[in-house]
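Record 1 of the preview.
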Amino acid sequence: MPEEVFKFMNEILKMLKESYKSDTIPEVQYDVESRKHLMSQKRYIFQYQSRHINVFSINAIIRFLLHGMVIQSAEGGQVILKAHLLRHAFATHAVQTEKIPVDIVKTLLHQKDIEVTSYYSAPTAQQVSESINSLHENWISYIDIQKGILRGPDELKELYEDYREKVGTLSKVVGGICTIDSICPTKMACVGCGAKVPRPEFKDEIESFYNWADESEKRFEKLSLPIEAKKMKIVKNRAKIELKEIQLIEKTQKDELHVSKIRFSSNK
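->
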């Protein structure tokens, strides 16, 4: 275990010995009904007054420690932390991010059935979304799909008006307006985000961003950093898309302002 955790465990053990006025701590019965058959009576550190600390007490402690804190999911929903949810989070992170074999995670969680561990460690919706985004970015770097994802002026206008009615205060970002009113799903990668409405009055910001990405791509290529250069290529493609969307908006605005002039001439 990490050194800091080991130190904390020693502090807890010292406190327990003092409370029991003994050089050791007593053996206690494991107090989780669904797992009693898996765990024998032992000197568990998670004990107090000769009783194993049960899940209800653990959840109460978690709520006390996190009092006043608001924890949200990537979609903006409130998360209520409980011991059971932390087990899910641990299993998912261990298998999906750390790539620890599921049978080892099963042993760490003291689970009898590996299918239960597989359910615990199933990828989250956010992980699936990030994987799809990563795949999409790889496609963008090799295939020109700009026309397929170009949004029309009417669609952008509807998105902008809907956001203004719902939120009121406009969130300015590079080259436009952000229409997300909760936690950012793209981790502030605003250029190319589907929730952003590019605005003609901020066109120069996107052009500057494109030039920065172009210079960075060339620099990374000189430094023999192909992956970083590919990232800059993706950024450039996203900036190009937004510039094309702004062109469409400008053309639409010009058409709306255009007034036809009719001239009459007399034929002699």
